[in-house]
Automatic annotation (TrEMBL):
<dbReference type="InterPro" id="IPR052567">
    <property type="entry name" value="OP_Dioxygenase"/>
</dbReference>
<dbReference type="InterPro" id="IPR006674">
    <property type="entry name" value="HD_domain"/>
</dbReference>
<dbReference type="InterPro" id="IPR003607">
    <property type="entry name" value="HD/PDEase_dom"/>
</dbReference>
<dbReference type="InterPro" id="IPR017670">
    <property type="entry name" value="Phosphonate_degrad-assoc"/>
</dbReference>
<dbReference type="Pfam" id="PF01966">
    <property type="entry name" value="HD"/>
</dbReference>
<protein>
    <submittedName>
        <fullName>Phosphonate degradation associated HDIG domain protein</fullName>
    </submittedName>
</protein>
<dbReference type="InterPro" id="IPR006675">
    <property type="entry name" value="HDIG_dom"/>
</dbReference>
<feature type="domain" description="HD">
    <location>
        <begin position="35"/>
        <end position="113"/>
    </location>
</feature>
Length: 189
């Protein structure tokens, strides 16, 4: 599909229809749904005073998992779509979102790989699902990968994305009206 031919509204329809149709599904072995997880991530970013690009990246960070319903069948043993961070980031780039948003989506998995390399105790904090997916995501980084990641201008924000990803698994947190994120996306697209 040539996304350049679509209006902003049509692009947003594509994204938010994914959330509406598939967001209520299980979040790969966690006690929350996909939409609960992604909304909680965005809410954490907002509560900590981050800008709208970071908030939206937190909201979009796992959009690649929703592509299982669009024919992407490269799975991580029942724990979601393999390379979901890359698939999601590429999709957001194609739609016209900023490189900052796309890179933060991409980097949330790299941050997990980094943290498990630099801090052995971080692995112990991961949920069982996050531990299982780490194997599919390349495992902990090596020293060269870690140094390169540390030099990324979005390094600190990427680590925050990972923190929110781990924290955004609370049951019974109300899902906000997605209109808020749609309006934010409209401004930034």
């Amino acid at each position: 599909m040539d996304f350049q031919l679509l209006t902003k509204e049509e692009k947003l329809d594509l994204i938010f229809e994914l959330y509406e149709k598939h967001g209520q599904e299980d979040y790969i072995g966690e006690p929350v749904s996909q939409i609960e997880h992604m909304c909680q991530s965005a809410q954490l970013a907002e509560a900590q005073g981050y800008d709208e690009e970071v908030i939206l990246a937190a909201f979009f960070h796992d959009i690649g998992h929703l592509f299982a319903h669009l024919g992407v069948d490269d799975q991580m043993g029942g724990f979601g779509v393999k390379r979901h961070e890359q698939i999601g980031a590429d999709y957001l780039r194609q739609l016209g979102f900023s490189e900052k948003i796309a890179r933060l989506v991409e980097n949330h998995v790299q941050a997990k790989r980094y943290l498990t390399y630099r801090f052995a105790e971080y692995f112990e904090k991961l949920s069982e699902a996050s531990r299982q997916t780490l194997n599919y995501q390349g495992g902990p980084m090596n020293e060269e990968e870690a140094r390169l990641f540390e030099s990324d201008p979005l390094f600190e924000a990427s680590l925050k994305m990972r923190t929110w990803d781990e924290e955004a698994k609370e049951e019974f947190v109300p899902v906000p009206d997605l209109k808020k994120y749609r309006e934010m996306a409209f401004k930034l697209l």
